Amino acid sequence: MGFFIQQKNMSLIKTAVYHHCESYLRQKAKGYLSQDQSLLESLDSEGKSSAGDKHETGRAMIQLEREKLAQQRERNDQDIKTLDALKNKTTTVHIAPGALVNTSLASYFLAVPADAFSHNDKKIYCISPQSPIGQLLLGKKAGESLSFRGNSIKVLEVL
């Protein structure tokens, strides 16, 4: 169930959610660097192994993992840039990226996907505007309704 946020606390909560997302993405970036370092060490140890098909297969698998990891890092870097662009975004009547939205179902911060943020025992879900619910919320304003997975959801507040 969504919850109303008093106007004076609005910017404090949005700032806290923003910093939560920022911290989440920075932690992911550190994890990716650590994983890449481990893969480089594995690749180095594979290079010291004896030659042969098994050796080449092992190196190829490690290289594929590094390429996959590079894609994940690139996506995370893009999310950091997206979030940074929303840092000083002002509130509008219509839901747009950077909005904190309270609905009859839940509360959402439309910016980047991250772990949920807890405030006064309530969760604020950090989602991408490109997510299924994010796409439905975009452009709506307080008082409007939408349907998501068979549920009627009313927009209560856009901050």
Provide the succession of SSEs: HHEEEEHEE
Number of discrete helical segments: 3
| Rounded Rg | 21 Å
Q: Can you tell me the number of structural domains? A: 1
CATH superfamily: Transcription elongation factor, GreA/GreB, C-terminal domain
Quaternary state of the chains: single chain
CATH topology: Chitinase A, domain 3
Low-confidence stretches: none
Shape estimate: elongated
Q: What is the percent of helical residues?
A: 40-55%
**CATH class descriptor:** Alpha Beta
Spatial order of the strands in the main sheet? 3-4-2-1-6-5
Q: Give the end-to-end Cα distance, rounded to a whole number of Å.
A: 17 Å
Secondary-structure class: alpha+beta
- What do the pLDDT scores average to? 90
CATH architecture assignment:
Roll
Largest beta-sheet details: 6 strands, mixed
Total beta-strand segments:
6
Strand content: 15-25%
Describe the protein in words.
The protein has 159 residues and is of the alpha+beta class. It has one domain: Chitinase A, domain 3, CATH 3.10.50. It has 3 helices and 6 strands; from the N terminus they run ααββββαββ. The chain has helices spanning 7-47, 53-85, 132-137; strands at residues 100-103, 107-110, 117-119, 122-127, 145-148, 151-158. Strands 3-4-2-1-6-5 form a 6-stranded mixed beta sheet. The model has no long low-confidence stretch (mean pLDDT 90).
What is the fold's blueprint, element by element?
Layout: H1 7-47, H2 53-85, E1 100-103, E2 107-110, E3 117-119, E4 122-127, H3 132-137, E5 145-148, E6 151-158
Parallel strand pairs: 2-4
Antiparallel strand pairs: 1-2, 1-6, 3-4, 5-6
